């Protein structure tokens, strides 16, 4: 059985789990191609114009998998991985959207509800529906979930050691020195930061500019939750809270010189997160830049902005450090 | 305390509620272009449209002297449940010292909820509070009954000027209400004068019915939806909306009572689970309107609205499956009246033709010509 996994959305957070899990269920895993202009254009054509870019990208990947002739495309319905916190409505309705708006997917969607108490989504009960559809026994399911969990925890550990997700997924060797002059905390969802087409490799570009980069998944969960805990009412969306916590941590951390909030056009949760980051960064005098990416962003514009931002931070740092003995 | 609140639909109910509790009420102005501009100016660019208009409304009310804003919270995952937090932050950042009383679900913060009620009830006893809330709720039910009647009959009333006068007279009467008994009397009065109007109802293929579904704020607030219900009425179309304030109260504030379950069930083929806002209810309403013989649906959503975008994605499928025309309109600060008018007019022409064709096909079939 060939199972297709779109290289989009939570692929960048859960792929190691899915890979191990489906392989252990005896399925062949097919991943869609990397995002390209052709691929994204199919997504754009087949989605409503106002929907956020990551969803358009996802739809492009679904079509790409249809071309590859898979038996099923795995489209999970992520409900919650923390008590009282859910995912953005577009995640909740994703299988409905895919099922009811795309031609040719009928009968090809493999979906399930993901409800967990933590990031760990390995509870086999979430996958019981697969028994019939994939013809596997309960014990196989249980076993596969257990093995996949280990693989995934290992992946998360690598993130916390400071590796970038795309490096781990692609076994890429880190380029650039790690002891750079300035450090920037990048606040962004994995599917925006690590989709090389969408983000135009901006992390690599930062590193080329001799910048240390930190992202939310490199932080200990405790550090993120410490910050989020300060809010009487948490934001409703799982990964937005992670970004909120990470953003606040970066703002307060003396090791971080500046923050880049990378957000996709049409992202609803980010429109709420934005003002919270802005006011906090302003109060603590930490430079913050927002990069809004969409399907049409030009590369030169991105580079210019990143260059200007890092130059500004360098100048600020020099002045501050110089000021102390002047 | 000088209390104000969001303007959504008729402000009559909230005004009455806070008046009966003995507060000074600053009735928020109906949203206009000025409100929108003000809101847009101080809101994040990609915030949803209702957040912007409500911010504008608050700022206008603050200018009129309001010092306390009362609103409801929510659990998400739609952004509306977080408006309170964002509005507070934006308004405080502007250096305005305004008190926010935001009612979240009881179970989220039981003690806080009671404290907020205490603050609002002032010297009144808990029993008084109960009676006053009940009166306001009954008034919402009653005014909605009148509203629904007008939305059904308005297309058939030729003397629109007289109807508008009657409407104002009815509103004045509601404004004077003190007790539940008064409501019964005013409602009787309202229906008596409404039924006294010249109403020439259409039948058969001439009769057109459109259901309005969508995000609750843009559906209920005529100030920003181009007065859609009346606009459709003026084209000779009966309308019904998926949201009325009394129903919102029933679903959200009265425990154990829910009429939405049945409606939600009808949506299950398209949206399996609750995804926030009223997306699932709206799809259910579309199916329900079809079953009840409606001729078309207008779907309203604020630009970029998270749950309604999921709905919009599957509208084509629903429309095909049900053989029901659906017009989806996205509302934001850049929407122009002429655009809406043109699209509405074309939509109505289309469903008229569709209906005419169907009925003449039917006649041909029955009479054999």
Automatic annotation (TrEMBL), chain A:
Task: Report the residue ranges that make up the DUF2229 domain in this protein.
Answer: 2-219
What InterPro entries has UniProt attached to this entry?
CoA_activase_DUF2229, Dehydratase_Activator_Redct
Instruction: Please report the name of this protein according to its UniProt entry.
Output: DUF2229 domain-containing protein
Tell me what organism the protein belongs to.
Iocasia fonsfrigidae
Automatic annotation (TrEMBL), chain B:
Tell me where the transmembrane regions lie: none
Pfam families named among the record's database cross-references: HGD-D
Matching entries from InterPro entries are given as: Dehydratase_Activator_Redct (IPR051805), FldB/FldC_alpha/beta (IPR010327)
Q: What is this protein called?
A: CoA protein activase
Annotated organism of origin: Iocasia fonsfrigidae
């Amino acid at each position: 059985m060939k199972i297709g996994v779109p290289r989009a959305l939570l692929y960048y957070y859960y792929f190691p789990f899915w890979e191990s899990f489906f392989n252990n269920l005896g399925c062949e895993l097919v991943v869609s191609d990397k995002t390209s202009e052709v691929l994204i254009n199919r997504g754009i054509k087949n989605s409503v114009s106002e929907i956020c870019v990551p969803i358009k990208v996802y739809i492009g990947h679904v079509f790409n998998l249809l071309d590859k002739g898979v038996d099923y495309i795995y489209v999970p319905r992520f409900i919650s991985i923390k008590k009282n916190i859910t995912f953005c409505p577009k995640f909740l309705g994703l299988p409905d959207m895919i099922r009811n708006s795309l031609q040719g997917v009928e009968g090809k969607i493999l979906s399930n509800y993901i409800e967990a108490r933590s990031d760990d989504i390995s509870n086999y009960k979430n996958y019981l529906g697969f028994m019939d559809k994939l013809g596997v026994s309960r014990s196989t399911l249980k076993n596969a979930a257990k093995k996949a969990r280990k693989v995934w925890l290992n992946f998360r550990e690598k993130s916390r050691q400071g590796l970038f997700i795309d490096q781990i997924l692609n076994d890429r060797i880190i380029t650039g020195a790690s002891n750079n002059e300035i450090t920037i905390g990048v606040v962004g969802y994995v599917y925006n930061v690590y989709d090389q087409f969408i983000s135009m490799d901006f992390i690599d570009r930062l590193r080329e500019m001799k910048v240390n980069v930190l992202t939310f998944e490199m932080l200990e969960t405790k550090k993120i939750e410490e910050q989020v805990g300060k809010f009487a009412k948490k934001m409703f969306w799982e990964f937005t809270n992670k970004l909120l916590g990470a953003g606040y941590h970066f703002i307060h951390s003396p090791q971080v010189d500046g923050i880049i909030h990378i957000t996709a056009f049409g992202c609803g949760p980010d429109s709420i997160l934005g003002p919270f980051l802005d006011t906090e960064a302003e109060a603590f005098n930490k430079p913050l830049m927002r990069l809004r990416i969409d399907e049409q962003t030009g590369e030169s514009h991105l580079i210019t902005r990143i260059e200007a931002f890092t130059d500004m931070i360098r100048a600020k740092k020099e002045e501050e450090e110089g000021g102390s003995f002047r | 305390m000088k209390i104000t609140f969001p303007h959504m639909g008729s402000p009559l109910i909230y005004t009455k509620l806070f008046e009966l509790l003995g507060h000074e009420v600053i009735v928020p102005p109906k949203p206009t272009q000025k409100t929108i501009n003000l809101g847009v100016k101080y809101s994040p660019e990609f915030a949803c449209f209702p957040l912007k208009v409500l911010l504008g409304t608050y700022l206008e009310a603050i200018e009129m002297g309001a010092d306390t804003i009362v609103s409801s919270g929510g659990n998400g995952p739609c952004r509306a449940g977080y408006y309170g937090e964002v509005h507070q932050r934006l308004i405080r950042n502007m250096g305005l010292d305004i008190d926010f009383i935001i009612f979240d679900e009881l179970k989220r913060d039981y003690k806080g909820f009671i404290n907020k009620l205490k603050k609002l009830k002032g010297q009144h006893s808990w029993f008084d509070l109960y009676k006053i809330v009940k009166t306001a709720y009954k008034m919402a039910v009653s005014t909605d009954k009148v509203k629904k009647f007008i939305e059904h009959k308005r297309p058939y009333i030729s003397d629109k000027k007289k109807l508008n006068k009657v409407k104002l007279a009815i509103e004045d009467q509601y404004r004077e209400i003190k007790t539940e008994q008064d409501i019964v009397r005013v409602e009787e009065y309202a229906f008596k004068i409404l039924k006294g109007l010249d109403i020439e109802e259409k039948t058969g293929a001439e009769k057109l019915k459109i259901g309005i579904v969508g995000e609750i704020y843009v559906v209920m607030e005529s100030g920003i939806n181009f007065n859609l219900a009346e606009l459709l009425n003026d084209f000779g179309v009966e309308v019904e909306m998926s949201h009325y304030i009394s129903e919102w109260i029933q679903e959200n504030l009265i425990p154990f009572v829910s009429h939405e379950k049945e409606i939600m069930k009808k949506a299950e083929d398209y949206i399996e689970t609750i995804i926030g806002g009223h997306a699932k209810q709206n799809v259910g309403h579309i199916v329900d309107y079809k079953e009840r013989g409606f001729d078309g649906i207008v779907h309203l959503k604020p630009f970029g609205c998270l749950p309604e975008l999921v709905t919009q994605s599957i509208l084509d499928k629903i429309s095909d499956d049900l053989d029901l025309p659906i017009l989806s309109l996205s509302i934001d600060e850049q929407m122009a009246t002429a655009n809406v008018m043109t699209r509405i007019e074309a939509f109505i022409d289309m469903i008229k033709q569709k209906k005419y064709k169907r009925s003449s096909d039917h006649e041909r079939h029955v009479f054999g010509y």
